[in-house]
Amino acid sequence: MQPYDMPDEKGHFGQFGGIFVAETLIEALDELRVMYEKYRHDPDFLTELQYDLKHFVGRPSPIYHAKRWSDRVGGAQIYLKREDLNHTGAHKVNNTVGQALLAKRMGKPRIIAETGAGQHGVATATISARLGLECVVYMGAEDVKRQAPNVYRMKLLGATVVPVESGSKTLKDALNEAMRDWVTNISTTFYIIGTVAGPHPYPMMVRDFNSVVGVECKMQMNEMLGRQPDAVVACVGGGSNAMGIFYPYIDLREVRLIGVEAAGHGIETGKHAAPLTANSPIGVLHGNRTYLMQNEEGQIIETHSISAGLDYPGVGPEHAWLKDIKRAEYVAVTDTDALDAFHSLCLTEGIIPALETSHALAYAEKLAKTMKPDQVILVNLSGRGDKDINTVAKISNINL
Amino acid sequence: MSRITDTFQALKEKNKKALIPYITAGDPHPDLTESMLHALVDAGADMIELGIPFSDPMADGPTIQRASERALAHHVGLSHVFKMVKAFREKNNKTPIILMGYANPIEAISAETFVVRAKASDVDGIITVDYPPEECKQFTKLLKEKNIDSIFLLSPTTELDRVKLIIEQASGFLYYVSLKGVTGAANIDIEQVKSKVGIIRELTKLPIGVGFGVKDATTAKEVAKISDAVVVGSRMVQEIENSNKDNLIHNISKLMKELREAVN
Ligand SMILES: Cc1ncc(COP(=O)(O)O)c(C=O)c1O
How far apart are the C-alpha atoms of A204 and A206, rounded to whole Å? Predict the structure, then answer.
């Protein structure tokens, strides 16, 4: 079988992906593509990136056998890839370090980013502070309210946080606004997109920078168990932590790859953020073609999820492709089930997971029960849940 | 020949430049759009750009975003837009109507259905903001079969090779975006526009329109000197935003007349 080699040079994953932007952005994307091609295999660039990943981010992150939790669940052994232990507390930083180093090479003094949960915003503000770059983060006004600690964190790191009041005031609108900023300030500004969405080369580049996660897993699983997992499970908002851990496993066909979307109040209620699981139609948003939650008139509809980081109506085009070619499976988990898994991991393993990650954990729990004790599930523990304690406390009627 | 080409031809014979106002369909209310279209024509519009409301207008500044939101509050989508154009055509069979919008509402009903319905309501041209030439060859072909013009944007950063690629697919006219940025952004640099328009002219016989940043009659006048058409978007939408339903028609007509005089 041919090794997996996607996207094509125009950024297509089959019918998905591509470059769907106004002419005013084309040159900036061309420049980015050329520079990324130039540096992605450049030894100096890679040495600098490795150094930062090791000494600034704290890589490699360990894999941890959640033994008590596995026993409690009953069934397969659950292993956790501890991206929560990275500096800034999530996988997002792998990508921001890579893109920021690229921005530096390109001589761009100003960084912009969009953020939902605030994790990508914090990671971007962090690396901008470290490299002495100006940083502006766009964040939906709703999310600014939901994620107050991360807003303050970004400010402490010297970033300007701009609340976005247009549209649904969430992640998708923050992305629109960041694009508008970029087109206006192209010559000075590098736009660090936080997930595997956007126009080419972003889905590919963000995947590549995050695939350090899967590359490490392959080595670590081999060292720990002398084998690879039976299934890899990751939550999917835009899909960057999932692509990061899936990508190095794509050619290992015997490993199941399972992406977990946010079912919100339940797929059947329509109040969710699960375009793949709900079989949403194909459409064009934020520069690429993918499955998209929309009404019959092609207007993007509001999404619902307890976790701001999964509250996105689209999904990275490579996930759309992996679904169509049946290399990955996509399922969804409700707010309630995610919360249960959140508490369960806190109590049995002493790890507070992000609410995004809790969706993956909830599905791993369900899946483990159907498997044998000598089988292995590897979950990408994409982030820690400190940012979510206000949300969880509120649901539990506790006033902090 | 298309209505757009005919209109440019007729203007050229009179040594005049085309004036193209932009409004968003359904803004401020779907019941008003048709009478606004007629009023703009009566006040001197040669063609009209009619925006298709979209939930995520990535290339638009705050003014046109708000227009989209006002229209969407009344659930205005493509099916209404087609009806509006059809109704307009019952009284006006001459003025070209150019739809401007984003790819997703078109793909939601499919490109095939879109062109059939656009033809049935007598639409003359379409600008799809987020369809660069590489991604819309099939759509352009379908439009051509129905004799609907494909109007493409060119920007200050578009390289010469791309200009050529775009010209191969374009018809009706070329739309030069006069600044780096979203609709309604900063003031435009006339000298820079002039030199770029000059370069494009050497490559094509298509008329060249200029828009994104024409903020007043004075700018419109300057732009008219160096192009074949002046597009006025955010300024027109601003006038709509600042009017109420009693003075709306009066206000947009007045602005249109001012622009007409300046351009003549
Ligand atoms: C911890 C964590 N996991 C997952 C996500 C979802 O993003 P993605 O699907 O790109 O991994 C986020 C986004 O904010 C996050 O903070």
Answer: 6
Locate the chain B residue with the closest alpha carbon to A299. Answer: B55
Distance from CA of B224 to the nearest CA of A (A): 22
Q: Give A350-383 pLDDT, tens digit per residue.
A: 999 999 999 999 999 999 999 999 999 999 999 9
Q: How many whole angstroms separate alpha carbon A30 and alpha carbon A10? A: 10
Distance from CA of A286 to the nearest CA of B (A): 8
Q: Is B122 a catalytic residue?
A: no
DSSP B44: T
What are A310-322's pLDDT values in tens digits?
999 999 999 999 9
The SS3 of residue A40 is coil
Give the residue whose CA is nearest to atom 4 of ligand 1: A356
Residue A47, judged by CB atoms within 10 A of its CB (0-12, 13-18, 19+), counts as: exposed
Is the separation of the CB atoms in B262 and B46 below 8 Å? Answer: no
A325 CB-near residues (< 8 Å, 6+ apart): A14
Residues in B closer than 8 angstroms to A186, CB to CB, are 157, 180
Contact between residue B222 and residue B15 where contact means Cβ atoms under 8 Å apart: no
Task: Check if the interface score ipTM surpasses 0.85.
Answer: yes
Ligand 1, atom 1: nearest CA belongs to which residue?
A383
d(CA B196, CA A124): 37
Catalytic residue among B27, B46, B49, B228: B49
CA gap A217, A205 in Å, rounded: 20
Among chain A residues, CA nearest to B134: A19
Tell me the one-letter amino acid at A345: L
A240 lines ligand 1 (CB under 6 A): yes
DSSP letters, A308-376, are GGG--SS--HHHHHHHHTTSEEEEEEEHHHHHHHHHHHHHHHS--B-HHHHHHHHHHHHHHHTS-TT-E
Tokens describing residue A107: 């001589």
